[in-house]
Amino acid sequence: MTNQYSDRKYIISGIIILISIIFIIRLLYLQVFDNKYKLSANNNSQRKVIIHPPRGLIYDRNNTLLVYNEATYDIMVIPNQLQKFDTTLLADLLNIDKDYIKFNIKKAKNFSYYKPSLFLKQLSIKSYARFQENLYKFLGFFAQARTLRKYPQKIAAHILGYVGEVDKKILEKNKSYKQGDYIGLSGVEKYYENILRGKTGSKIFLVDVHNRIRGNYKNGKYDTIAIAGNNLTLTLDAKLQAFGEKLMQNKIGSIVAIEPSSGEILTLISSPNYDPNLLVGRIRSKNYRKLLLDSLKPLFNRAINAKYPPGSTFKLINALIGMQENVLTENTYYTCNHGYHFGGITVGCHGHKSPLNLKESIQISCNSYYCNVFKSIIDNKNYPTTTQSYNAWRNYVTSFGFGRYLESDIYDESKGFVPKSTYYDKYYKKNHWSALTIISLAIGQGELGITPLQMANMASIMANRGFYYIPHIVKKISGGISISPKFEVKHFTKINEKYFSTVVDGMELVINGGPGSTARIAKIDSIIVCGKTGTAQNPHGKDHSIFIAFAPKDNPKIAIAVYIENGGFGATWAAPIASLMIEKYLTKKISKKRKYLENYILNGNLINKK
Fold first, then answer.
1. Within this chain, do residues 574 and 521 fall inside the same structural domain, yes or no?
2. What does the alpha-carbon distance between residue 474 and residue 190 come to, in Å, rounded to a whole number?
């Protein structure tokens, strides 16, 4: 009998111990591993608010404000705290419909019952003020401040770029971003994202049963400070940019201007363009789609992405290569009989005096002259094969920044195209092509694809007589951060400096010479402008109008390239636009004598006259 009671004692003790262990494990799980109840309790009395830092401001080279931040508010919701509310009133306050409310609350619940979820983004200050007055009626909702970009000048959309919310792909790649963060998606905003973005902070507030803030949790012990992004000063001249954009209205093409002595980009215009404010806030998606579907492609940055034939502007490069290879001198004469004729090949040319020397060939832009020059380069007996002489020619060409990335700080630049010898081997078979096969390269046609940025860089090289600094758009960064040292390095071409003076003299004659000069319309009193016209053949319509230039001739301050699609001769549209830009930059105004030219360009409409 005693053993029976003794056994029961052990059984009961075991049950008690087992129950105790179960309770201990459960309590441990609830308090340590399962934070659901703790989170629920904390959310009822505390509110963690993310403090989004303002992005850095952006100024032009003269401290004109180009981009600033405007306050806006995201409305957040914590589903667990929701109580019955007036959906009609909420819809009216936030200018949304009831279906939106229903859908986004369901979406928030699917994400988490206990964590804040985005309900409505980018509420204006005016709407927020109305909502804040009635916030006590909507338990579970609260507002979180943030900023949106604003563009007071409404210019330079392609340079500045735009900002958008991070997507799933970005979140997977970069763990430093959280859902709801904004990121630069193009232009300067993207290239300098790490400089502009700043550092996110947070604050924990104590709230009452009516969802009203009553103070900081533990006097802000666990708060973190939001650090604003660094400001950027661009190399851009806002007044020149705005003037150029006006000149380019109703035209397709681009303008790029560079300060030769530094590589600083003074203006970079792609036309058609758009007001950068269109891609801000809740209207961004709608406007982006509209711009994307526009047949004129205003989102496409022609200045850095379009690959055009450089036309006759490329004759300057062949002239320099010819002199470097000792197959051409400034006193070399070639005849022209309305073009170049060899066997069954003819490259036409306009009527002009003949024969011509090198400077005159630049002044008059003779096609026959440069076909002869190019043939002498490729047929140079110092090279055993056509492939070797072509490769030497291509090495000279790429030293000017063609056919490769310039490594600018403008996001998404194209490297253009200068074909390798293997390209022709593929199409004509190895050793089955010659100078005559590719003679169109003599006059900047054929397979060449050059971006307007690269053409402006070529003008800068001519201005510097043989070298360039990498074109760049940022001049200064706040906070003592230095711009990349690569922008301070001189890059020399493979052409000896002594040959540039002859070409530059020829470029001066293009504008300031006598009869036959192709761009006398670009002449500016008291400023010696050196330039070269180009007319690029276009199989899809009217030829393209091209002009590159720099000024003054000595100690140049500006180098420029203008490309007008379907504009015809270089002197018709591109040269006048370039000269007006040069005059505006160097003198700050357009003289009365040339107002007629300004009005002609401003009133010109080429979009409907292809």
1. yes
2. 13
**Rounded distance between C-alpha atoms, residue 471 and residue 278, angstroms:** 28
CATH number for the domain harbouring residue 211? 3.90.1310.10
Residue in the block written with tokens 């340590």: 32
Helical residues (DSSP H) of 441-499, grouped into ranges: 452-464
Contacts of 63 (CB under 8 A, 6+ apart): 233
Q: Kind and range of the H or E element at 546?
A: strand 544-551
Residue 277 and residue 164 in one domain: no
Domain boundaries, position 322: 238-286+297-602
Number of domains in the chain: 2
Instruction: Choose the final residue of a domain: 192, 214, 234.
Output: 234
CA distances from 68 to 56, 196, 530 (A): 8, 11, 39
Helix, strand or coil for residue 1? coil
Q: What is the pTM of this model?
A: 0.87
Which tens digit of pLDDT belongs to each residue from 229-246?
Answer: 999 999 999 999 999 999
Q: What is the CA radius of gyration of the chain?
A: 34
Q: Assign residue 329 the CATH number of its domain.
A: 3.40.710.10
Give residue-wise pLDDT tens across range 333-390: 999 999 999 888 899 998 899 999 999 999 999 999 999 999 999 999 999 999 999 9
